[in-house]
Task: inverse folding
């Protein structure tokens, strides 16, 4: 099944220094990216917090960065600031292409995101060749495969480990050279296990990106009292068959505790166990 991913921006990074430039800006190893797959890579600020999470694609002579469109006006000029004297051109090509998500479908242009999901970048004139399904099905597939996103609401609030990007190095490579925030991200990795991880939840009432996960019995709640703002955050959500499903960060020690939305009186979330 195919899905029109209308709310994603697309930047093209080209020029003789494009690969070197991206290697110095992103968390994953661009040199290992082939032209048949999509690479997850975090674009971090100096404290290691993620500004954007890119789906990176390699073309013959350039790269494409796919990410939620609400970040476009922030991310493009920030990347541009670091070009300086390099032979690099950054262009917004969102309107030149359509982005199509694919679940368990074969297509000659499909680039693998993970074992279930693929991405197709094609021309607008080709859109009628795809039998597009409801975007909610794509959202549920993203939750099933724990594919995280960063939106404007969550930008600069999470480090890569909170989105499980360090697991099997799917979004962070710890052997490559420096990039913004690399020292912080590496330190967290080598100090041991992350305190917060990404989990899937379901809820019978509405929730939104940026909502807090609250645990009244947590040590954080007891220690901080009125200053306690929650033990996690919703980073992706979808409404499906009258229920809401989400990916959210949560303190690992609380994964089996009672979790409510935003405050102690909020509705209780149910963790989807894999």
Result:
């Amino acid at each position: 099944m195919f899905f029109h991913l209308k709310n994603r921006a697309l930047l093209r990074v080209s020029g003789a220094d494009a690969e070197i430039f991206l290697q110095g800006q992103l968390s994953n190893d661009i040199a290992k990216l082939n032209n048949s797959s999509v690479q997850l890579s975090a674009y971090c600020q100096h404290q290691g917090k993620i500004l954007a999470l890119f789906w990176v694609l390699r073309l013959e002579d350039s790269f494409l960065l796919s990410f939620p469109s609400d970040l476009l006006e922030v991310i493009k000029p920030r990347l541009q600031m670091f070009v300086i004297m390099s032979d690099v051109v950054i262009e917004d090509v969102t309107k030149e292409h359509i982005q199509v998500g694919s679940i368990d479908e074969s297509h000659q242009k499909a680039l693998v995101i993970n074992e279930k999901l693929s991405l197709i970048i094609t021309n607008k004139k080709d859109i009628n060749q795809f039998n597009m399904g409801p975007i909610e099905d794509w959202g549920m597939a993203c939750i099933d495969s724990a594919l995280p996103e960063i939106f404007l609401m969550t930008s600069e609030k999470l480090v890569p480990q909170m989105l499980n990007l360090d697991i099997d190095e799917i979004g962070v490579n710890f052997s490559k050279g420096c990039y913004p925030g690399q020292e912080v991200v590496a330190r967290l990795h080598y100090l041991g296990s992350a305190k917060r991880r990404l989990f899937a939840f379901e809820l019978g009432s509405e929730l939104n990106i940026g909502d807090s996960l609250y645990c009244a019995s947590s040590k954080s709640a007891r220690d901080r009292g009125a200053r306690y703002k929650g033990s996690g955050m919703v980073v992706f959500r979808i409404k499906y068959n009258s229920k809401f499903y989400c990916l959210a960060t949560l303190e690992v020690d609380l994964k089996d505790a009672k979790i409510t939305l935003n405050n102690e009186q909020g509705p209780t979330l149910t963790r989807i166990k894999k």
Observations:
- Residues 9 and 69 are 4 Å apart (CA to CA).
- The radius of gyration is 19 Å.
